[in-house]
Amino acid sequence: MDHIILKEPKGIGKRIKALRREMKITQEDLANFTGLSRIGVVKLEKEENDLKLSSLIKIANLLGFEVVLRKRNSK
C-alpha cells in the first residue's frame, strides 16, 4: 500500500492498527514514539477517541507515510 486517502476520520484507527501489525510494531512502541499512553493507542485503534493532528503526523512518520493536504478535484 503506497497511499491512503481519508475523507473522514472513521476507519483510521483500524488502518493504523493493520499497518502497525504489518510492520511488527507493538502498541507500547507506538505509544512511546507518539507520547500517547498504551491505553490511548488501544482506544485509538478501537476508534474510541479522536486523534490529534500532531499524533497523526508522528504515527504516519513511524509507519513510513506522510500527511499531505491537497485540493480535491471538484465533481
Task: Characterize the structure shown.
This protein is mostly helical and 75 residues long. The chain has a domain at 12-62: Orthogonal Bundle (434 Repressor (Amino-terminal Domain)), CATH 1.10.260. It has helices at residues 12-22, 27-34, 38-45, 53-62. Helix 2 packs across helix 3 (38-45). The chain starts with 11 loop residues before the first helix and ends in a 13-residue tail after the last helix.
Quick gist of this model?
Helix content is 49%, strand content 0%. It is mainly alpha-helical and 75 residues long.
Report the β-strand fraction as a percent range. under 5%
Can you give the helix content as a percent range?
Answer: 40-55%
Number of beta-strand segments = 0
In CATH, the homologous superfamily of the domain at 12-62 goes by the name lambda repressor-like DNA-binding domains
Approximate shape? globular
CATH fold name of the domain at 12-62: 434 Repressor (Amino-terminal Domain)
CATH A-level architecture of the domain at 12-62: Orthogonal Bundle
Distance between the termini: 26 Å
Query: Strand pairing plus helix content: what structural class?
Result: mainly alpha
